[in-house]
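PROTEIN DESIGN WORKSHEET
SECTION A - STRUCTURE
LENGTH: 234
TOKENS:
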């Protein structure tokens, strides 16, 4: 599903060059659930942004579902993102004046799906994340965990092949985090590939594989026996 070879990324800051990724080799098979860990500045968010086509590498190859991702203009990058990728962020990124349902419908609006189908699909995904009854609520009427579930439903409504989550539990307490990981595990059970950036060891162990970054290189990549979040939730 994802193949990365010799990926390098640096940023120029005045007279200095900051090397963030220093030759990353990284493959993800379809249906995997991978945690990307590392301390602040290790390069994990930069890697996720490149995978999400929100940033570009200086050099190296990136292949997504057999498609080389290279020198795409913004229009083509947007098409690929809509077709293949869903995003979940720590800060939820919901639009405050729109209801939960309208937030989830938004990606389909940009894909020119008709309103009736947008509503039906958005409602379906809200129900999948356990928020069907909250469809008409605005973000300020929802808890942090509920907001993140809306964000997950919005990420899923385009039916992506890969879900990229950057610290999805970072703003949540432990109980809510485990409830959210239970949702993400069930999504992964359907065959969707998940990559989750996290600094929390217990969250990482709820994935099937843990990749550790340090100073822009992968220092460890191991498969783990997945801890099911439902054992904490029930």
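SECTION B - SEQUENCE
RESIDUE ASSIGNMENT:
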């Amino acid at each position: 599903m994802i193949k990365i070879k010799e990926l390098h990324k640096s940023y120029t800051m005045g007279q200095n060059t900051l090397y963030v990724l220093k030759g990353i080799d990284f493959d993800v098979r379809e249906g995997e659930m991978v945690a990307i860990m590392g301390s602040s500045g290790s390069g994990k968010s930069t890697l996720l942004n490149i995978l999400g086509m929100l940033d570009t590498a200086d050099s190296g190859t990136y292949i997504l579902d057999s498609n080389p991702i290279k020198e795409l203009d913004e229009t083509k990058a947007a098409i690929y993102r809509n077709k293949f990728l869903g995003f979940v962020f720590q800060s939820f990124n919901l639009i405050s004046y729109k209801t939960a349902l309208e937030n989830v419908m938004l990606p389909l609006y940009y894909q020119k799906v008709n309103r009736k189908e947008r509503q039906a699909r958005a409602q379906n995904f809200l129900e999948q994340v356990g928020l069907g009854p909250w469809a008409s609520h605005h973000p300020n009427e929802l808890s942090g965990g509920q907001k993140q579930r809306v964000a997950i439903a919005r990420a899923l409504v385009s039916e992506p092949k890969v879900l990229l989550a950057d610290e999805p539990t970072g703003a949540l307490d432990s109980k809510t985090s485990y409830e959210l990981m239970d949702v993400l595990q069930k999504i992964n059970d359907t065959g969707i590939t998940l990559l989750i950036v996290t600094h929390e060891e217990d969250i990482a162990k709820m994935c099937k594989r843990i990749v550790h970054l340090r100073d822009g290189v992968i220092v460890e990549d191991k498969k783990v026996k997945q801890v099911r979040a439902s054992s904490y939730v029930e």
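SECTION C - NOTES
The two ends are 33 Å apart (CA to CA).
The helical segments are 44-51, 74-84, 100-110, 115-128, 144-156, 174-189, 201-204, 230-233.
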